[in-house]
Specification:
about 425 residues, alpha+beta, Rieske Iron-sulfur Protein, 2 domains, 10 helices, globular, binds fe (ii) ion
């Protein structure tokens, strides 16, 4: 049962209460696929270094729609729906490859890189019998073409041929931060994939939730990578849907990362800050590469993209919904072409922060599955999202004990879904 208006959905106009049914409702999920993933959003689909040459392609998804992203003869990017115009089979099944045409395995219908239908076996039948009627118009049965643009090597696709450019969609906050991390030619070091049995919006909340980072993730707090006592904060763009959370090293703990006064703050809150130890601390070493002192940040791009620096581990994440109670995360770990061997090795090692068996991200998956189980059939109760205060959603916060970016996500979500309450506090 889907509520008809925003006023029916939201108990609080500032999105400080999130009804749990929003994470489980099948009908709502179908509307999300239509209004968000096939609607007016740019969806991250990968890095353009994955397909450098003419004919290179990768397959992925926008929402639940399978797509092919490929490189044309002139170096242009092409995005097509990966579904045969004949009977609907996925034309490409490989994750990556290089071909000048795409041929469906079912009946060998063949398409150009641009998606035009260029070959149909037995089109005129055999010996004048069977085949297609002369009225069949081959031009009408190509692969559906989508809009694709890239910014500093990150590729995005949209179903909406009318909406604003990717440049405008990203806005100044993302353009600045993507330019920082994509400051020179990059090299992909590897991929990780993870299926999480929870609703996709729990992941979007999790990555905007700077409050949980040093409470759920023992590794962060034990080794001083992310403590609420470190300088840091949250930034939102004007739409409130994109966010950026960041953390700078504690100036009082420059070498060891961990400072005693900070540990006392955690102890006074009943949190033990030193539960584990490392035999070899090389894993925590940091090679400074940028003009600023940021060592840990995570950017969230509405609806499905994330890019991150964790010490020297650089990665992007693409989130793909797979029904109301499941989603997939594709992690792409990268470095720069001119990295020394040692630095590339360190980046690969530090990729152990992330992914299904990482020192950090495994815990996010666990807690999301735990939440989905806890409110599976709940139709009334709500989550409480008040850390950092209520009311208008602030774009700039100089502390990390706040949940404001989560309210920002819901504000943009509600507008796109046509479910904004009367008098909404944005
Ligand atoms: Fe987390």
């Amino acid at each position: 049962m889907l509520a008809k208006t925003g006023d029916d959905v939201w108990p609080a106009k500032d999105y400080a209460r999130i009804p749990y049914w929003l994470f489980t409702d099948e009908e709502l999920y179908q509307q999300e696929l239509e209004k968000i993933f096939r609607g007016s959003t740019w969806n991250y689909v990968g890095l353009d270094v994955e397909i450098p040459d003419w004919g290179d392609f990768k397959t992925t998804y926008v929402g639940e729609t399978p797509i092919i992203v490929s490189r044309g003869k002139e170096g242009e990017l092409i995005a097509l729906v990966n579904r045969c115009g004949h009977r609907g089979a996925m034309v490409r099944r490989e994750t990556h490859g290089n071909e000048r045409t795409h041929t469906c395995i079912y009946h060998r219908w063949c398409y150009s890189l641009e998606g035009d239908l260029i070959g149909i076996p037995f089109k005129r039948g055999v010996n004048g019998k069977g085949g297609l009627d002369a009225t069949f118009d081959q031009k009408e049965h190509g692969l559906q073409r989508l809009r694709i643009e890239s910014f500093k090597g990150m590729m995005f696709v949209t179903f909406d041929h009318e909406m604003q450019s990717l440049h405008d969609y990203l806005g100044p906050l993302n353009r600045e931060q993507i330019a920082r991390i994509m400051c020179k030619p990059i090299k992909v070091l590897g991929f990780q994939k993870q299926i999480i049995k929870g609703n996709w919006k729990l992941y979007q909340e999790n990555l905007r939730d700077t409050y949980h980072a040093s409470l759920l993730h023992s590794f962060f707090v034990t080794f001083g990578l992310d403590r609420v006592t470190n300088p840091g904060g949250t930034r939102l763009d004007e739409s409130k849907g994109h966010s950026f959370v960041f953390n700078r090293p504690d100036p009082a703990a420059a070498d060891t990362l961990v400072n005693e006064a900070s540990s006392q703050v955690y102890a006074s809150e009943g949190v033990k800050a030193e539960r584990v130890n490392l035999e070899d601390t090389w894993f925590l070493s940091f090679h400074k590469q940028y003009d600023d002192d940021m060592r840990l940040y995570l950017a969230c791009l509405f609806p499905n993209a994330h890019y991150q620096q964790m010490n020297n581990c650089l990665n992007t994440r693409q989130m793909i919904p797979r029904g109301p109670d499941m989603f997939e995360v594709v992690w792409t770990v990268f470095g720069y072409e001119d990295d020394t061997e040692d630095l590339a090795e360190l980046r690969k090692f530090q990729a152990n922060f992330i992914g299904p068996a990482g020192f950090v991200s495994m815990e996010d998956a666990e807690v999301i599955e735990n939440m989905q189980t806890a409110f599976r059939n709940e139709r009334e109760a709500c989550a409480v999202v008040e850390m950092g205060g209520r009311g208008a959603i602030l774009t700039d916060c100089d502390n990390k004990v706040n949940e404001i970016p989560i309210r920002g996500f819901w504000s943009r979500y509600a507008r796109l879904m046509g479910l904004e309450p009367t008098g909404a506090e944005r």
